[in-house]
Amino acid sequence: MDEKTRKRRALEEEFIDEKKKINNGIETINEKMNEFRRENNQLMEKFIYYTKNDDVNLNKVEGQLRAIEEEFYHEANKRIFKLEEVASELNREYEKSLLELDKQ
To answer: Which UniProt keywords apply (predicted)?
Structure first.
């Protein structure tokens, strides 16, 4: 195996490892969002069940929970967007490195 092929293979392995880390990060955030959604819905159902005979403003509580939920999703989506930006930059750097390697 010549030096150029070895360098290309090393670049590709590093690129694949970094992409996996980014994709795992995005997958983790999506899993957390789904978990949050399930737990939030369960909490609301329990709250409604236990307070059905009480004088509670369910609309107000639900509104507050939805606001928390929206903020959570907003932050999660911001983090996904940042990871996607990192992935795009990683792609650009990988392509640039390959071009430079081909010029050698």
So the answer is: Coiled coil
